[in-house]
Amino acid sequence: MIGDGTSGVERSVERTLGHLRTLDAAGEPEEEQVTNAPLTLEDLYRQQRMRMVRLAILLVDDPATAEDVVQEAFTGLYRNWAQLRDARAAVGYLRTAVVNGSRSVLRRRKTAREYQPPHQPDARSAESLAMLSTEHQAIVKALGHLPRRQREVLVLRYYGNLSEGEIAEATGVSKGTVKSTASRALEALQKHLGTS
């Protein structure tokens, strides 16, 4: 687990993103039985597309943009499918491509905001937020105020349910950086939420 102690904010983030993960998983059909047959790109698309879209939504705050990021990730995977040594590694490739694509979107937004008045992004649908408690809504909103890397680490840890090593691989940083970033992110959330 990230961090040495479990603070109230960390429990809240874990509860909120875990709750979103559970809500999202409830809407999916059960995963297909694992067979000895080789995994195809079509199988991967069917199994992972919506998970990757939800991950991207949490990172970029816009469903249409998240769809575009994921489509680009699958397009890149298609172009490089023949070079993959192991089809099972494709999920990690996709996750990293979604994180990198989300970063690019956020950089472009930042540049665009320098030339236009800032606007409030439509983070999640009204129905999705209505299903969340007030505490969960506050956490999701507070995540939007974190710097990009801090937000990525918390979303990948508590929504993506990834280990520190998997987060480090997906974001291109060391495990130590993942730990310290998570710690700073939780402190920032605590200050933003006004809890102690």
UniProtKB/TrEMBL annotation:
Q: Which residues form the RNA polymerase sigma factor 70 region 4 type domain?
A: 137-189
Per UniProt, the keywords (alphabetical) are: DNA-binding, Sigma factor, Transcription, Transcription regulation
Keyword Aminoacyl-tRNA synthetase applies: no
- Domain RNA polymerase sigma-70 region residue range list: 44-110
- Molecular function terms from GO: DNA binding; sigma factor activity
Q: Which GO terms describe its biological process?
A: DNA-templated transcription initiation
Supply the InterPro entries for this chain.
RNA_pol_sigma-70-like, RNA_pol_sigma-70_dom, RNA_pol_sigma-E_actinobac, RNA_pol_sigma70_r2, RNA_pol_sigma70_r4_t2, RNA_pol_sigma_r2, RNA_pol_sigma_r3/r4-like, WH-like_DNA-bd_sf
Give the similarity note.
Answer: Belongs to the sigma-70 factor family. ECF subfamily.
Protein name as catalogued: SigE family RNA polymerase sigma factor
